């Protein structure tokens, strides 16, 4: 009897996995929208009537994989990367949709004293006084972070204090665990991380926003499901979650 139940369980799990692989919508997404999509996943799947098979990474990394002809149905990446992939024919121009944008901020282990970052001089003092910082060298916010360090005149000083992370998850996790003092990354990557507090956004002088858009693979056989997902993500029903995770809608 027990053996029969084990066999039945295995058959059911195999059937579910096969169904998911066959009918699941393959989504390749940027780390910048991970918090939002994770929170909305159940609603997304209900809206499109099938499961999501999602893979998150930096937009730069996903771009390379798409250019190498990796199979996918829908991509949610920085708007810049989506447009580049449209130009190269890897994403269809039809159906492209802007979703939201995120500013860049500072994160620190939850409960730790938050340093002053209100003004450029305060940021300079805070960074020079920090034992260590981390950010992702191929992340969407890298160019803006390094421009700020250059403008503050502390780029060389920060080199020995910088611990480069392989991805947003690693960057935010190490800061949450106190292994590095500060993480500099998209606010939408800081806010959803357990054990991590948002100190605040970059001062206005250095603040930049990274926009995210969705695009459909020209080779997908799941066009309607991909369109349905975009429709849900751009709907008012999804807006509160984008806001709660540190993102803001882009005014048309």
Summarize the structure.
The chain is built from eleven helices and nine strands. It is α/β, with parallel strands linked by helices and 252 residues long. The protein starts with a helix and ends in an 8-residue tail after the last helix.
Rounded to an integer, what's the Rg over CA atoms?
20 Å
Structural class: alpha/beta
- Taken together, the total number of domains comes to 2
CATH fold annotation of the largest domain:
D-Maltodextrin-Binding Protein, domain 2
The CATH superfamily of the largest domain bears the name Periplasmic binding protein-like II
Mean pLDDT: 92
Total helices: the number is 11
**Poorly predicted spans:** 9-21
Percentage of residues in strands = 15-25%
The sequence of SSEs as H and E is HEHEHEHEHEHHEHEHEEHH
| Assembly context of the chains | single chain
CATH level 1 name of the largest domain: Alpha Beta
State the helicity in percent bands. 40-55%
Largest sheet entry: 9 strands, mixed
Tell me, what's the shape? Answer: elongated
CATH architecture grouping of the largest domain: 3-Layer(aba) Sandwich
Distance between the termini: 62 Å
Give an overview in words.
The chain has helices spanning 2-23, 34-48, 59-67, 79-87, 120-129, 142-152, 155-159, 168-176, 187-190, 223-233, 239-244; strands spanning 25-30, 52-57, 74-78, 97-109, 133-135, 162-164, 182-186, 196-201, 209-216. With 252 residues, the chain is of the alpha/beta class. The protein is elongated and about 55 Å long.
